[in-house]
Design a protein that fits this description.
By secondary structure, the chain is of the alpha/beta class. 34% of the residues lie in helices and 22% in strands. The chain folds into three domains: 67 residues, Thrombin, subunit H (Beta Barrel), CATH 2.40.10; 261 residues, Rossmann fold; 85 residues, no CATH class. The protein has 13 helices and 20 strands. The strands form four sheets. Strands 8, 12, 13, 14, 15, 16, 17, 18, 19 and 20 form a ten-stranded mixed β-sheet that branches. It has a six-stranded antiparallel β-sheet with strand order 1-2-5-4-3-6, with no helix packed on it. A two-stranded antiparallel ribbon has the order 7-9. The relative contact order is 0.11.
């Protein structure tokens, strides 16, 4: 380990926020203090080593640095505070408290980064996380230990959606990581968590747009490391919320450019996939311990799913939620782990409802196209159009919040408002059990029995001499 009193002063270059110095015995990702005259020392991190040339990313930026600066390496990597005292606290991208609360200087610190979880210690996901959002709970379940992004575009309501999931999700601890947030977004998340009563079990790491860009690169690592420690040491079920991973990737690109690395697609570095995978793979259901579930936001510039960030993300994660025009698109969204829980740990009708609702909504989209092209519509087309409007209003809108069991019942109600039981093409035992009886259209034999009872009652009231009724279905 390099001694704290050892200074290195052979500054070779200053390129943007990257300082290059000649040194030896230094490790990648080690921290250093950069002293520039009488100014307060700036924190820096080793991002590249080539022989005895060491490149450091200066957290406070390279503005004002001179070649007369002195560098002192600490011999350790970036660390984050971990204890029960961090719950209900807000930290910046360097792990420093920014909420005005008491100092945590004496609390335990753990080094961030390191390898992901040994596959042998991973448990096959088998538990659903209820979010109260029907398009997720019913149609694309969020499964414990899943890693899944929300694909969206700038201007959509992905941050309010993410905050609502953090409030309503069935998780014991929420760890939030914000990267490149404007102050309004930071204030929104904090006040929302406080007002809804979940702040006491929440940890926030926030890098604002005006903060050093290198701190943006540390936020996911700190958030995931804290989540990992809560899961492993305290057997907690932890939900990690990260926004926005595109801002994180842009920070990697900017640092790579300042280091004069050769870019790959659209200016992003060639290791973008690896950098994203290292973070996402920390989502895990631990054998004999808790779990870490990662839900992130990935904005798509120009709504282009082939952009390098969403494109690489899609190969790593277990599906995605596609948010556009204020709705969660059932066709663009996918949860590859939902089959682990649908009908197994959820209600028996869940799978049939999910498939039938999506099939009928697809038919509604076809009917809408026929209507737009002025084709003649059949009676079924009109039913599908009505169903499509109800489906979008009751399930797709991101503002809808319905408990999971009520959402399943609402599916049956919506189907009953638009279709007869024999039009659903579902298992008869499920239709008999869950299809709601409506006036004049009670399900199956019960309707005939009810009619017979009504006839008998009318005749007895009239003393057996009332006008005879013709039985249903024609003459006897």
């Amino acid at each position: 380990m390099i001694q704290d009193v050892t200074y290195f002063t052979r500054i070779l270059a200053i390129n943007g926020d990257v300082l290059t110095v000649r040194a030896d015995g230094v490790g990648l990702n080690d921290l250093a203090l950069v002293e520039n005259g009488e100014d307060e020392p700036s924190l820096a991190q080793v991002v590249k080593i080539a022989d005895d040339e060491v490149s450091l990313q200066v957290f406070a930026g390279g503005k004002g640095l001179s070649t007369g600066a002195r560098v002192r390496f600490t011999g350790r990597g970036s660390e984050v505070t971990f204890s029960d005292n961090i719950l209900g606290r807000v930290f910046d991208g360097a792990g420093r408290p920014i909420d005005g609360g008491p100092s945590l200087r004496g609390d335990r610190r753990v080094e961030i980064g390191g390898p992901s979880v040994n596959p042998v210690k991973r448990v096959v996901p088998s538990r659903m996380i209820e979010t109260g959002i029907p398009m997720i709970d019913v149609f694309n379940c969020l499964v414990e230990s899943q890693k899944i992004p929300i694909f969206s575009v700038a201007g959509e309501l992905y941050n309010p959606l993410l905050a609502r999931i953090g409030i309503q999700a069935d998780a014991e601890i929420v760890v939030f990581g914000g990267m490149g947030l404007v102050f309004d977004d930071y204030h929104f998340f904090r006040t929302t968590f406080e007002d809804e009563g979940v702040f006491s079990r929440t940890v926030m790491f926030v890098n604002q747009a005006s903060d050093p860009i290198v701190e943006r690169m540390l936020v996911p690592d700190m958030a995931l490391k804290v989540a990992e420690r809560f899961a492993v040491e305290q057997n907690k079920r932890v939900l990690v919320l990260l926004t926005d991973m595109t801002a994180y990737a842009d920070a990697l690109k900017e640092v790579g450019t300042s280091m004069e690395r050769v870019p790959a697609t659209r200016g992003y570095m060639g290791d973008l996939y690896s950098q994203l995978a290292v973070r996402y793979e920390r989502a895990c259901d631990y054998d004999g311990a808790g779990s870490v579930t990662a839900l992130t936001v990935t904005t798509m510039p120009g709504d282009d799913v082939t952009h390098p960030v969403p494109d690489n993300t899609g190969y790593i994660t277990e599906g995605q939620f596609y948010l556009h025009d204020g709705v969660l698109d059932p066709f663009g969204s996918l949860s590859r782990l939902k089959q682990q829980v649908v009908g197994k740990t959820t209600r028996e009708d869940h799978g049939q409802l999910m498939n039938t609702m999506i099939r009928l909504y697809s038919g509604a989209k076809d009917a809408q196209q026929k209507q737009a092209m002025a084709f003649e519509l059949s009676e079924r087309d009109h039913k599908l159009l009505k169903f499509g409007e109800l489906f979008k209003e009751r399930f797709m809108d991101v503002g809808v919040s319905v408990p999971f069991a009520e959402a399943l019942d609402l599916c049956w109600t919506t189907l009953a408002e638009c279709f007869e039981p024999d039009e659903l093409l579902m298992k008869q035992e499920l239709v008999d059990k869950y299809y709601p009886a409506t006036d004049g259209a009670a399900a199956g034999p019960a309707a005939d029995e009810s009619a017979a009872d009504e006839l008998t009652t009318d005749e007895s009231v009239a003393g057996g001499a009332a006008t005879e009724r013709e039985p249903r279905g024609g003459a006897a």
